[in-house]
Design brief:
Length: about 150
Amino acid sequence: MVFCLALQLILLVAAQTSASEMDMCLLPNEQTRLQNEKKLDNRIKIYQAASTRCQSTFDYAAASADAARVPAILQRWMRLLELSLQDIEANADRRKKSKALIRYEIHLRKALSDLEDSKMKFPYEEMEQIGAWLAKADGIRKRFVDILFQR
């Protein structure tokens, strides 16, 4: 019960935050943790938590039929995905498979599938934007697979 209330509060705050106030889906404490964290697996877990929060914000916008917020949400989420890809490409040990990266890729695959399903709730213009975003995000996800399987 307390967890649900806390989650709703986080979603409410995230929903009311404008794009200029929140450049990415990362919270200030997560940005600090990313800068200080030396292990890639721990940084990947931070990226996954932030990505989950972006997905929740998108789901909230979809449920409330707030199509005007969708482009800003997707833009912040894409910046997060690009940042995580840069970090992972630069620091991944290609000889061993990172369990955190495997979980992150699975999370992204499920999130992209959920977005594909929910894009029908939006007007045609937003559906096109979401479709283009999904294609770009899937390209990033595929690069994670390439890192995992050394393609």
